[in-house]
Specification:
The protein is of the alpha+beta class. It has a domain at 103-272. The chain contains six helices and six strands; from the N terminus they run ααααββββββαα. Strands 1-2-3-4-5-6 form a six-stranded antiparallel sheet. A hairpin with a 2-residue loop joins strand 3 (191-197) and strand 4 (200-206). Helix 5 runs antiparallel to helix 6. The longest helix has 53 residues, at 76-128. The relative contact order is 0.09.
Length: 283
């Protein structure tokens, strides 16, 4: 086969390009047709598969989580157990906290009373003379309320800040003056009673403000003081001091009488400890 024949045969195998269709020109009618015919050999199954794939891709939108979130909560048994534990802890700690608070109140109020009452005596001495010369005449073994009231109003009332004062008694037994004493309340809530007898003046201080008539009031509620009391350190001084009637002067004597003798010596025991309640105090 010569070259001429190969060229002729090669040209016969090439696809013949269709002649270009002229573009529709302006002015042609709307009835001009465009050929939208599909190629004869288009695979319908492949086309359908492609359509499904595109459709599934388009629909693959993230869906919101529909799982319900559980709310956390305690069961009734857990709540009851917790409350029980809190109750046990409170029962163990609250008494100690209350006792600590009460001791602080006692220490603070006793020291404040000691300061305030002696300042009042010093101020009164300016107008009423030496306290050792003040009139202490009960008229009998125990002074009447009128005698006690007269003494208080003359020598102390004008020099103390008080919320009220009235007739009352801090002891049930008539052997200790009955209800003839003057009861006085101070602005900080402290109360005290004042009563005169043939040995001088007895003062009972109640740091929590409640005047207890029982002579055996616990040694954390009532504390004894004296003014010009015979056989005490106040006998020859014009001031108020913690109760020490017939004290033997020893620390052991204070502990014994604070525990056993109507608790009158407890204020002195606290005073000698710097107005602090000792660790071994009979609370």
């Amino acid at each position: 086969m010569n070259i001429e024949e190969q060229k002729a045969r090669g040209q016969e195998g090439k696809p013949v390009n269709p002649s270009p269709q002229p573009s529709p020109t302006r002015g042609e009618g709307v009835n001009s047709r465009v050929d939208f015919s599909l190629p004869e050999k288009l695979d319908c199954r492949a086309s359908l598969a492609m359509t499904k794939k595109n459709s599934s891709t388009a629909d693959a939108v993230p869906l919101p989580l529909t799982r319900e979130v559980k709310k956390l909560a305690f069961t009734l048994a857990e709540v009851l157990i917790t409350l029980g534990i809190i109750g046990v802890v409170a029962a163990m700690t609250l008494p100690a906290l209350i006792e600590h608070h009460q001791k602080k109140v006692v220490e603070t109020h006793l020291q404040k009373f000691y300061t305030v009452i002696n300042q009042a005596i010093k101020l009164s001495a300016v107008g009423n003379g030496d306290p050792l010369d003040w009139d202490i005449s009960p008229g009998s073994t125990y002074a009447s309320y009128d005698v006690n009231k007269k003494f208080f109003e003359k020598y102390l009332l004008k020099y103390l800040k008080v919320t009220k004062y009235e007739q009352c008694g801090d002891r049930l037994s008539s052997n200790y003056g009955g209800s003839n004493r003057v009861c006085v309340w101070l602005p900080d809530g402290t109360a005290f009673t004042l009563g005169m007898d043939i040995n001088g003046i007895d003062i009972s201080v109640f740091p929590f403000g409640k005047v207890d008539k029982n002579i055996n009031t616990p040694q954390r509620k009532r504390f004894g003081f004296n003014f010009r009391k015979s056989r005490t350190e106040t006998q020859n001084i014009g001031g108020v001091e913690p109760y020490t009637f017939k004290w033997d002067g020893t620390l052991e004597g204070l502990y014994e009488k604070c525990t056993n003798e109507s608790h009158n010596f407890c204020a002195k025991l606290i005073q000698v400890n710097g107005w602090k309640i000792p660790d071994d105090y009979p609370w």
